[in-house]
């Protein structure tokens, strides 16, 4: 499937793209647009205004996708809390990783285009998933 | 807030939300406060435009529409550099007051015992981070606040 989002990805979009590839569509192709009118007719838009897979009822797009696709993996919700705080900084969740994640993704977005950025952030989120999964098994942060 | 006459783009949100229910209104008010917007008039707010602020206000606009209201985003420039300076000064003044509260709390905590100092330190660090996210035109108080919190941090470490 083709998935469309706004160009110049930051943390929420990068996290969504990772989630889509990992859990929803392993052959996902992404297009990046500057204006909502540029979304191809056969593409599923996400993290844009006026689309289903965006911010809704206080959720960031990552959380919306988890809900819409009924991905009830607790590790993904742990990551959702971090992404939410990195994106919105609302202090709704206790997620001290958020600030660091936001800075890392912002920095990478300065040195890479969207395609290159997502390659790197996919690695970042794979590692974060592994860490959070082990933390859940151990009941504490893994050494 | 430099002395140049170079004006910048601002992203402006014109919005109207129904008076009832009040929950989305309050959520909206909180979010705008957190973003540090300049209130230009009833239902008209602005932030200096960059990719981040534009996106932030886009999501606010979405929230307004979901709450049954109307929202429109504009990219605009104040007509004169003077108007822009006035606006920036007003925004800087608002965050300066917030930094002032941090400075006062950090100094007051210095006389307290180490447990209180440590707890205050954690709270003030969170406050500084939150203020920095709505600080678009940093006033001199920012550095003073940082230094006050760092001094408090030093006094906590010494006590360990």
The biggest beta sheet of chain A is recorded as: 3 strands, parallel
Q: What is the string of SSEs of chain B from the N terminus onward? A: EHEEHEHHH
Mean pLDDT of chain A: 94
- Tell me roughly what share of residues is in helical segments of chain A: 40-55%
Instruction: Report strand order across the widest sheet of chain B.
Output: 2-3-1-4
The number of distinct β-strands of chain A equals: 3
What can you tell me about this protein's structure?
The complex is a heterodimer of chains A (143) and B (160). Chain A has 143 residues and is mainly alpha-helical. Helix content of chain A is 54%, strand content 9%. Chain A contains five helices and three strands. In chain A, helix 1 links the parallel strand 1 and strand 2. The radius of gyration of chain A is 15 Å and the shape is globular. In chain B, strands 2-3-1-4 form a four-stranded antiparallel sheet. The mean pLDDT of chain B is 91. Chain B contains five helices and four strands, in the order βαββαβααα. Chain B is an alpha+beta fold. Chain A binds chain B through residues 6, 8, 10, 49-50, 54-58, 89-91, 99, and chain B through 27, 34, 51-52, 55, 58-59, 61-63, 65-66, 126, 129-130, 133.
